[in-house]
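We modelled the chain as a single entity of 177 amino acids. Its sequence is:
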Amino acid sequence: MDNNNDKFYQYIFINPGCYFRKIKRELGYSVGTTQYQLNKLEKEGKIVSYSNGFYKSYFANGLFDENEKKILQILNQKSLREILLFIIEKKNSTKQDIVKKFEISYSTATWYLEKLIDSNLILEKKNGKFTLYFVNPDVKTTPITVQLLKKYYSNIWNTWANRLAEFFLLLSKEEGR
């Protein structure tokens, strides 16, 4: 493997689910060089690409199943990641909850929720005049997401774990009253 080829492979191995622009930006190569190296690695069978809507993500070959690829692709997109973690944390969230929490419009929330539903990571259920959003229990989204966060996004995991710990401490104090 040549030096550039090795740099690209190592970056993808360490940052699974990364997308083209991020690879280009973080490694500091031109568009042409980045395209060439990614195509070469894919033809050699060392990496695989996975398209989901607007984004094409890259993974070291043979390390992740389809569900893990979906989750890693979402974890690489800040807004989708934050909404998924919010739904995992809050359970039975409404669009109103998401709009309020992230200070986004209803149409933006709808777009993000549709992406998460299309990836089969969350489900929706009508409850009167509200629609509830929750993690799809059939794909074991929560444990896989937690595992991937711990391994590949330790800073985000630590922040999220601290938030959950504070939440549980607050609940225990309220129950003790």
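As a brief sanity check on the tokenised model: The mean pLDDT is 80. The chain has two domains: 3-63, 70-175.
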